[in-house]
Amino acid sequence: MFYAIRRYKFFYHMALLLACILGLPAPIHALSSLAKNDPYPVFSLLYEHEYLLTKKLLLAENDNRADERGDIFSISVAGFFQNADRGKPADGCIIIEPTTDNSISSCNNNVSTTVPSCDNVTVPLLDIGGRTAMIPLIFGHLPAGQSWGPKLTDARNNLYNNPAPDADITVENDIDPSEFFGYFSFPAAYKKRGMRLDLEALLLCGFGLHFQAGFASICQIAKPRINLTCSPHTPCEFCPTTSAVNVENVNDFLMDRFECIAREIDLNIANFQKTSADEIRLQLFWRDAYRLNLDRVEWLQMHVIPYIEGGFSFSPGRARNTNEFYGLPFGNNKHTAAGFTAGLDLNFIGTIQVGGAFGFTHFFDRDFDCFRLPTSKFQQNIFPFRTSVNVQPGNNLHFEGIILSRHFLDKLSIFFQYINLEHQPDCIKLNTPDPAFLPDILARKTGFKVKLANIGFTYDFTPHFSIGFLWQAPWFQRNAYRSTTVMFGVMGVF
Question: Which of 73, 227, 285, 292 is disulfide-compatible with 309, CB 3.0–4.6 A?
């Protein structure tokens, strides 16, 4: 029966590819890289676990293209384009989109404003961790050696009746749980453009070296911010308990003074546009193919292909400056990383290759100066004070499943890769103890989850050179950008 199916190779491939795309099973847990905007960067248009093994597999198929196929060295150079303007919130569904209804609801604390279903909720990029609250900027203790600026002092005096500078204001009933009253929404457009290089060199006995590097230009452009404090386009269903904390005062002393407050706390709210090195990886791999049923022609002919790769990652590029409201990191935000990936592929000779892999990455800690931290548990996105911290990123795990059809149509190859990623929450510690700062509040929002699909096509236009296209499509996110990546490039194998 197997040989009868092989006679209809085209339809066989199509059916298996469709079945993989529609029904590839998802694993339970996995982890990702540090960058919420680019959680699984792709460096090559080739299936990433080829490891110069294609010549051996083609020889098993008696494919005459194997005679000129190289298996010592490979190079891939590719340009990529990445865009996003939405993301998934950290808690799945934490906020409601502004309505287009021109009516303003009456004040009623008993009216529910929660979203019943979280699955399909996406939000503007800078609302992923929650909308930006302005009232909590004047909450909390004053850090040692720091002081309130004139605008925030004015807001404290008018909303809370001239408190002492070191007084801790924490009035939970003045914070709108539906994130409208006293909140901004910050839509933005994210773009990343760059080039990536991938080199592999086979040493001996299946061992080889793998080098990857890239540089990129990141742009995050601010769209008009939205004041949600009982505007004509959003509901006003929240009633603060403090009488002075009303629509007029909150707008006058906080919302309308946003740009002045940003300058006062030295927060740069301009568009972000930077170009820098992204990431450098140096890895050692081992991979080999073991033929099954070589002398049993009546049995299924296949290769079992185990592999493992381990190494280090360096991020020489620019670290994220927390004084830049729209800023983003390059690579792993200056953190050095070490990790491995191990997996197993099954190559059904003359048909398809399927497999799966599991990976783990550890990131090493790093100190950061002038790092913004919350001084109130209600603060989100904007923090008025800075300090020196040590950041230990959470470990990363990922799982991936693959289906590959080599020379699917003549010289055209195709692969589909499913990736399940999760990044565990970071640990943030103060270098100088100060009870005013609450690093755990920020650390709890650093974890995220992502599921992605990589769909790649390569076409061999000579025995040694190929061109390719890859599309990385977002499938599921939690506390991450809904980024789409397109990559074009050329590959050579010698």
Answer: 285
